[in-house]
Amino acid sequence: MNQTLINVHSYLAYVALALLVVAAFNAILGLTSKKFFTDKDLRISLFTMIVCHIQLLVGLIVYFVSEKGFQAFAIEGAMKNSELRLTMLEHPLVNIIALVLITMGWSKHKKEESNNGKFKKIAIFYTLGLVLILSRLPWNSWLN
Ligand code: HEM
Ligand code: HEM
């Protein structure tokens, strides 16, 4: 069960990251080429938001079932071990911040009236979130 959740978190990461790239790129494109914010743009941003939230929820559970998560604080010298520090502290903390930013982008886009304004909020906040997530991924364990 625990390993299944860790695997789900690992595979859903591909989907979440791919969607974030698509949604951020789509918003930047819409902004720079002054397009109308259509239903398609809404769906791309919303679907990205949903998958990211599911990933957040799974991540939070993984944090308490994985030995590389919260439990790692009990290991002597864990803070000095960069791989453990990443999964027990940096990756969770930074990704929660990233998810707050993405959610803020989604909420703020709803309050904008203009096409430009909507694209701008998604473009800025989703891109920021994506960059933060990419900065703190456990690349070594993920790609091996
Ligand atoms: C730890 C778990 C979660 C937390 C802390 C969380 C938190 C939030 C917050 C703070 C908002 C912003 C509401 C607003 O200001 O408009 C939000 C919106 C949303 N969440 Fe989550 N969420 C979680 C899990 C999920 C899951 C599992 C899903 C989907 C299956 C989901 C789907 C959504 C959607 C679709 C919205 C946008 C609603 C709208 O604006 O129409 N969330 N969430
Ligand atoms: C969109 C946000 C996130 C993405 C894209 C993401 C992605 C990943 C990836 C790719 C891995 C490596 C999996 C592997 O080694 O195969 C991982 C591991 C992990 N993540 Fe996340 N994550 C996100 C959010 C979170 C959050 C919010 C938490 C906790 C609060 C979290 C906790 C963990 C933990 C504890 C591990 C280590 C699991 C283990 O290998 O035992 N993640 N994450």
Automatic annotation (TrEMBL):
Transmembrane segment boundaries: 12-32, 44-66, 86-107, 119-139
Keywords tagged on the record: Membrane, Transmembrane, Transmembrane helix
Domain of life from the UniProt record: Bacteria
Protein name: 50S ribosomal protein L27
Source organism per UniProt: Flavobacterium cucumis
